[in-house]
Design goal:
The chain is an alpha+beta fold and about 325 residues long. It is about 25% helix and about 25% strand.
């Protein structure tokens, strides 16, 4: 049973080992903040929201409950502040019946790993790499047999099918449609498809926020995997679909094999995160808000001399 701490109960105190001096923080890549900002803004463009608390950013989309849209980004904490952080973060998601992931810089601090495991969160098998490039024009690669282009409006259902086949499909489609047709001024959304013999085999969503592009939700049909369709789509995005400029282009890779392929296209790993997630059957449970309390009204105040009235504060 997963419980969220509240009002000082079930709080977590750092051990003597966790209070020891920590290793120096690695230098942060200059493109990382822009990449993470674009990642958050993509969730916002689909109807979500985000807010910062000391130690991380809570990214939330209540209409799209999957972990792709509900995560705590870039968790960085001192041992002395873990109780307040997890109290706020877990209360926020559990009260909305959402199962977030917590993204910790890899390798993750042992004291944070211990706290997350206590609450039933376990690390995903592979860390994810944040990759970035400023190259928007590449030499033409050898023919791959795949043709790539932006998706047409009537193909939005096809794009949504690559993401989900569950009851969330209709909401995904509506969110995409709103983001595409009514973007806020600093952003835009563009779905793209790769075809094999006229059949769509890979899809992705391009999202621009200010001067940064993100390539999101790259997905390939099971029968077409392992043939380079996703790589062809990303290469075509860099070479043909995005404007030829020095804008920052970012995406995530969840496996070393995928990271190496993307590095061959000019991407550079700028950060690595380990995501911690709950088991699908884990029960979300919030303890009572606290002991019951009686009314806290003040007694009526006597009237001031000469006022002729009584007031209640």
């Amino acid at each position: 049973m997963i419980q969220s701490p509240r009002n000082g109960r079930d709080t977590l105190k750092p051990s003597e080992d966790s209070a020891a001096p920590t290793a120096p923080v690695p230098r942060r890549h200059p493109d990382l903040d822009a990449a993470l900002r674009e990642e958050r803004e993509f969730v916002l463009a689909l109807g979500g929201y985000a807010f910062e608390i000391p130690g991380g950013t809570l990214v939330t989309n209540e209409k799209l409950p999957g972990t792709r849209f509900n995560f705590v980004q870039d968790v960085r904490l001192s041992p002395e502040r873990i109780a307040g952080f997890f109290e706020r973060a877990l209360d926020h998601y559990f009260q909305r019946a959402l199962r977030p992931t917590f993204e910790l810089p890899d390798p993750a601090p042992e004291f944070l790993v211990g706290v997350l495991e206590r609450y039933g969160f376990h690390p995903q098998a592979e860390p994810s790499s944040v990759l970035a490039t400023h190259r928007a024009a590449l030499p033409s690669p050898p023919p791959t047999g795949f043709s790539c282009r932006p998706a047409r409006p009537e193909e939005l259902d096809t794009v949504s099918d690559f993401w989900t086949h569950t009851e969330d499909r209709a909401e995904v489609r509506r969110s995409l449609e709103v983001g595409i047709e009514h973007p806020n001024p600093p952003e835009s959304i563009l779905p793209v498809l790769a075809f094999d013999a006229g059949r769509p085999v890979t899809a992705a969503i391009l999202h621009r926020f200010e001067e940064t592009w993100g390539i999101h939700a790259v997905a390939t049909q099971p029968k077409a995997r392992g043939r380079g369709a996703a790589t062809a789509l990303v290469a075509a995005t860099l070479r043909e679909i995005l404007p030829a400029s020095r804008q920052l282009i970012c995406l995530r890779a969840g496996h070393p094999r995928i990271r190496r392929r993307l590095e061959s296209l000019g991407f550079e790993e700028i950060a690595r995160y380990r995501a911690f997630e709950l088991a699908p059957n884990a029960e979300l449970h919030l303890p009572p808000l606290g002991p019951p309390m009686g009314p806290r009204w003040r007694p009526p105040r006597r009237a001031s001399p000469g006022s002729g009235t009584e007031t209640v504060r």
